[in-house]
Amino acid sequence: MYHTIFEVGKKVVDAIETTQQEPIERAAELIGEAFVKGHKFFVTGSGHSHTVAEEFYGRAGGLACVTPILTPELTLTDHPTKSSQLERLDGYATILVNLYDIKAGDVVLIASNSGRNAYPVEMALEAKKRGASVIAITSRKHSEACTSRAKSGKKLMEVADVVIDNCGMLGDSSLTVEGIAAPLLPTSSIANAFIAQAITVLAAVYIRDAGLEPPVFISLNVMGEDNKNDEYFKKYARMY
């Protein structure tokens, strides 16, 4: 069983590598281009998908030019089902699009495994309405098997400009174990982390190739490096 767990995880990562190169490279290009032209890169998700924003934001080896839309209501910090209820609420994403002042030329990356709820769909539609480009990280298999809960009747993968499939199963959990009724081993977190880091590296390379220095955070836990990130925090850290 121990080795089976790792086989499942590696199979998902391998599937992403072999099938998602084009959308991942396109996503990185959009983010790099936005930086070069002085626009912003936003990232958001709800429930466990909010961890994609944390994967992109404020970590060593990550780009400093990231604005996460991480309101507590969309995370699991207050209550395990609060975000599940709020992500089905019409109008909430529009409030955040206005609050964060998403504009033409910006890029918004939205993570949602099912892509069916109001929040990710509305976020995508409202961002595009303002002229921003939208990148989706979602499970095509899950999304294709369900109906939309959004007022528009759309799903995230139907409205995003770039769609990256996390290659997960319907319901996310990917391992059936004898004697246990529910499947185990959700793979979206594994997949999303690899996708986020692939995009980050490729976007940094795009910025470098454009003749600019990519703003990349370094670890504050490396001796003698305490002040290296100060200029990035001053320039890019969100002030909300």
Automatic annotation (TrEMBL):
<feature type="domain" description="SIS">
    <location>
        <begin position="31"/>
        <end position="204"/>
    </location>
</feature>
<dbReference type="GO" id="GO:1901135">
    <property type="term" value="P:carbohydrate derivative metabolic process"/>
</dbReference>
<dbReference type="Pfam" id="PF13580">
    <property type="entry name" value="SIS_2"/>
</dbReference>
<dbReference type="InterPro" id="IPR001347">
    <property type="entry name" value="SIS_dom"/>
</dbReference>
<dbReference type="InterPro" id="IPR035472">
    <property type="entry name" value="RpiR-like_SIS"/>
</dbReference>
<dbReference type="GO" id="GO:0097367">
    <property type="term" value="F:carbohydrate derivative binding"/>
</dbReference>
<dbReference type="GO" id="GO:0016853">
    <property type="term" value="F:isomerase activity"/>
</dbReference>
<keyword id="KW-0413">Isomerase</keyword>
<dbReference type="InterPro" id="IPR050099">
    <property type="entry name" value="SIS_GmhA/DiaA_subfam"/>
</dbReference>
<dbReference type="InterPro" id="IPR046348">
    <property type="entry name" value="SIS_dom_sf"/>
</dbReference>
<protein>
    <submittedName>
        <fullName>Sugar isomerase domain-containing protein</fullName>
    </submittedName>
</protein>
